[in-house]
User: Which sequence fits this backbone?
């Protein structure tokens, strides 16, 4: 029988899909297979899980769940799905910061492909900054029903950056994310050109690039609060929401006066 991905648009080159149930069986497979490719819940729309020899699915593996409360980390086995992990974490009083959009997607498959979930109302988006004068923005894509709640959460976060110190974990994660993703800014020739162009446009020294991650690493909680107080002024915020005005206007009006605009930004006086 031809094995395919979940959508059925990719036929795998082999129907040899091994389903080990123990770590020892996985080890034996790794030793014996000429070529081995792990398979998650088959939700990728391409051939990344395919192999012309053996595919291994860890779905049947004994579940591993090890929560480290102090460090707020959890260790799971290679077959665990979000649908299995989320309730267990919930029962222990924890939650994931972000999820894939479907419960049956495997954690490892999602991590391998940087799955980010979609329209997640709790999804976070970094505040974008720029060196030229201009707005600083924060936002995201939300389930329509939770748009006003999401906007309220963002406002709360922005206010808390001014009024209280960010936590050690938040600061460490933010720095980690910026520092570890920095090499990706040089991943292609176009990226390198864009980085060099930035030096030229803003008159920055070459050391801007070489020192960048060191400077990020040196940022303190005080720095965050100082800069947030200087630039994140709640009295000068403009909230832009794109969505169904019929359902969104009322809940949003509880946060701020609502003005309707057309796609070109011109005020609308009436309409759907
Ligand atoms: C209907 C649908 C909706 C989707 N929605 C979203 C969305 O909203 N947001 C989003 O970001 N993505 C979305 N995706 C994409 C999907 O979440 C990703 O493709 C994700 O990788 C799927 O995980 P998986 O478990 O199916 O992994 P697979 O597609 O089976 O595998 C992905 C990769 O992980 C590797 N891998 C799997 N298991 C292991 C393991 N145990 N050890 C080592 N490597 C392993 C595979 O070899 C492969 O390279 C959607 C896909 C579908 C079909």
Assistant:
């Amino acid at each position: 029988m031809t094995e395919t991905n979940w959508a059925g648009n990719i036929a795998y080159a082999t129907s040899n899909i091994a389903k080990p149930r123990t770590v020892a069986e996985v080890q034996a497979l790794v030793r014996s297979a000429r070529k081995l490719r792990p398979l998650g819940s088959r939700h990728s729309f391409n051939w990344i899980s395919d192999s012309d020899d053996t595919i291994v699915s860890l779905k049947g593996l004994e579940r591993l769940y090890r929560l480290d409360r102090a460090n707020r980390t959890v260790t799971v086995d290679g077959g665990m799905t979000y649908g299995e992990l989320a309730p267990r974490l919930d029962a222990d009083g924890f939650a994931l910061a972000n999820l894939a959009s479907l419960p049956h997607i495997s954690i490892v498959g999602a991590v391998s492909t940087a799955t980010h979930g979609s329209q997640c109302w709790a999804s976070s988006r970094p505040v974008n900054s720029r060196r030229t004068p201009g707005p600083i923005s924060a936002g995201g894509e939300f389930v329509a029903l939770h748009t006003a709640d999401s906007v309220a959460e963002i406002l709360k976060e922005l206010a808390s950056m001014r009024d209280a110190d960010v936590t050690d974990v938040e600061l460490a994660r933010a720095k980690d994310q910026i520092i570890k993703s920095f090499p990706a800014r040089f991943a292609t020739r176009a990226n390198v050109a864009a980085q060099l162009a930035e030096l030229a446009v803003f008159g920055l020294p070459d050391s801007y690039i070489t020192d960048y991650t060191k400077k990020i690493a040196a940022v303190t909680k005080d720095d965050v609060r100082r800069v947030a107080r200087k630039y994140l002024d709640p009295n000068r915020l403009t909230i832009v929401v794109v969505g169904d005005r019929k359902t969104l206007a009322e809940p949003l009006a509880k946060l701020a006066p609502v003005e309707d605009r057309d796609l070109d930004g011109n005020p609308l006086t009436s309409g759907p």
Summary: The radius of gyration is 24 Å. The longest helix spans residues 147-163. Confidence is low (pLDDT under 50) at residues 119-126. The first strand starts at residue 17 and ends at 18.
